[in-house]
Write a structure and sequence with these properties.
Structural class of chain A: mainly alpha
Distance between the termini of chain A: 31 Å
Order of helices and strands of chain B: HHEEEEEEEEEE
Helix content of chain A: 55-70%
Strand order of the largest sheet of chain A: 1-4
Number of helices of chain A: 13
Number of strands of chain A: 4
Number of helices of chain B: 2
Oligomer: heterodimer
Number of strands of chain B: 10
Helix content of chain B: 10-25%
Distance between the termini of chain B: 74 Å
Number of domains of chain A: 1
Strand order of the largest sheet of chain B: 1-10-3-8
Radius of gyration of chain B: 19 Å
Order of helices and strands of chain A: HHHHHHHHHHHHEEEEH
């Protein structure tokens, strides 16, 4: 019933050309709730949302760029991998370890990267997608220590292949869990580091996640009746309620076109400003810590 | 008798030629690799996009993106016609306002950059103009 309702919501959103339209989701303060929608290709709508979720690497790169020190203790323990027996745990932690792998890669911590690579391979095999993760190539790149960019690129590409395969096989519920796990780990790491370093850039990044969270929840809600989803949705909805209180100011402006290194470049005119307070960050950090601990334990 | 031979010849031709037309495959993987190599230095690979126009039957291939403010995104494209010939990548914001396109001044650009200052939903559309193959791929890179 819930699934039908959400598919209808997705379909209606597409029909109205508001499929997760920023103004519909961000401005109103409430996620889109539409009913009595016409029939559409449900799977396409789910695919469209999942495909749009940004790679956690965007957040990990920011963490590194603000000059924070790498701490392995911030990441999940790679040896915990054998504890995850339920499918939901395997899929969420595949995402968690994927983020940790990318994070270790960015810092050039190749030995840690190899540990996370083994954990990723184990969970990918358990979930029946191991064939889409080129373990040997990534292992060689990690061991060689010579080409960090290629290592990061191949890791990202392999996770994309896993998710594409899952969606092609109509296993979107696993794909959304993997993406959710990866996103939670990335924001959790940002929150933990911010707690130590009190960095404005990290705070802005934490506060600027509402759109991704809304989109993940839109798909997770479809699988509400599957094992373990209800608890995850409940926790993420609590997080969503905090995000709903964060003000986002939009300013219109004229774009500027120029050539940069011979590449056609547009600097956007419109600007958004997230007015996130220390209290918002504190609430988000508390919720994230609890949620992430539930996922990895 | 001539009619029978004629039908036989048509049948044989149909057998050999028609399947090729129907099954003309677009191997997007090859162009993903080429596009990745074309990303500018400093841009980190983020996503790949398959651009398979199915011999011209698909006019627009649509993707949705969540872009973050203070991030520079680069699209690099490569196709079967050579470079990005015949393919156009256009970015729209959530209100469907065009932000940037790779076809300007009657020229197909292989890449473009979008310096995002507003976190939001964006629509990435791939279209074709005078394409022979309707086949290629693009990758998205990002830089803070």
């Amino acid at each position: 019933m819930m699934r039908k309702l959400y598919l209808a919501i997705l379909s209606a959103a597409a029909m109205l050309s508001l499929p997760f339209n920023a103004s519909a989701v961000v401005d109103s303060g409430e996620p889109v709730r539409l009913v009595n929608a016409p029939e559409q290709d449900d799977v396409f709508q789910i695919e469209e949302i999942l495909q749009s979720i940004p790679t956690p690497l965007e957040i990990s790169v920011l963490i590194q760029e603000v000059g924070t020190v790498y701490r392995r203790s911030d990441l999940n323990n790679p040896d915990m991998v054998n504890r995850y027996s339920r499918t939901i745990k395997k899929a969420l932690n595949l995402g968690v370890y994927g983020t940790d792998l990318g994070y270790a890669n960015i810092y050039g911590k190749n030995q840690d990267a190899l540990s996370y690579l083994n954990s990723v391979q184990k969970l990918a095999d358990d979930l029946g997608v191991g064939a889409f993760f080129d373990y040997q190539t990534i292992k060689k790149l990690a061991e060689s220590k010579g080409n960090l960019d290629e290592l990061i690129t191949q890791t990202t590409l392999n996770f994309e292949k896993i998710n594409t395969h899952l969606r092609e096989r109509k296993r979107e519920e696993i794909s959304v869990l993997t993406l959710t796990g990866g996103w939670i780990e990335a924001i959790y790491l940002t929150a933990m580091i911010n707690e130590r370093e009190n960095n404005d850039l990290l705070k802005k990044k934490i506060g600027d996640q509402r759109l991704v969270l809304d989109r993940l929840l839109l798909v997770l809600d479809i699988y509400n009746d599957k094992d373990g989803f209800a608890d995850l949705i409940k926790d993420l909805t609590s997080l969503q309620e905090v995000y709903a209180q964060i003000e986002v100011i939009e300013t219109e402006g004229e774009p500027e076109m120029r050539e940069e290194d011979g590449v056609l470049t547009v600097v956007q005119g419109k600007k958004t400003e997230v007015k996130v307070t220390d209290d918002d960050i504190r609430k988000i950090t508390v919720l994230l810590r609890s949620l992430r601990n539930k996922i990895i334990r | 008798m001539k009619n029978i031979i004629g039908l036989f010849v048509i049948g044989v031709m149909a057998f050999f030629f028609a399947p090729q037309q129907v099954n003309a495959q677009c191997s997007t993987e090859l162009y993903v690799t080429k596009s990745m190599k074309a990303l500018s230095k400093g841009y980190q690979f983020s996503k790949s996009y398959r651009i398979d126009g199915r011999n011209g039957t698909r006019k627009t291939i649509k993707y949705t993106c969540v872009f973050a403010k203070d991030t520079s995104y680069e699209i690099a494209m490569r196709g079967q016609d050579g470079d990005a010939e015949g393919m156009i990548a256009t970015l729209y914001d959530a209100k469907r306002n065009k932000q940037i396109t790779s076809f300007i001044g009657n020229k197909f650009h292989n890449s473009w950059r979008f310096k995002c200052t507003a976190t939001g939903i964006y629509y990435l559309h791939f279209t074709f103009k005078d394409s022979k193959s309707y086949c290629g791929a693009a990758v998205l890179g990002f830089k803070r």
